[in-house]
């Protein structure tokens, strides 16, 4: 990392498993927000839960994609 920011992350530093975890965590966070919103606005909450599930289930695809990009 040549950046002056000690907390910056170079894309080459992210391992395929890290990408999988990041995508799954993002999907889970969206789903939890959707569950909380569903108490106020049912349609929006259900839509967010659905999007969260789709994002979380796409984490295996992210893993395969990252491995292909890295040539493994």
TrEMBL record:
UniProt KW keywords: Membrane, Transmembrane, Transmembrane helix
Domain of life: Archaea
Membrane-crossing segments per the record: 21-40, 46-64
Record-given protein name: Major facilitator superfamily (MFS) profile domain-containing protein
Species this protein is from: Halorubrum distributum
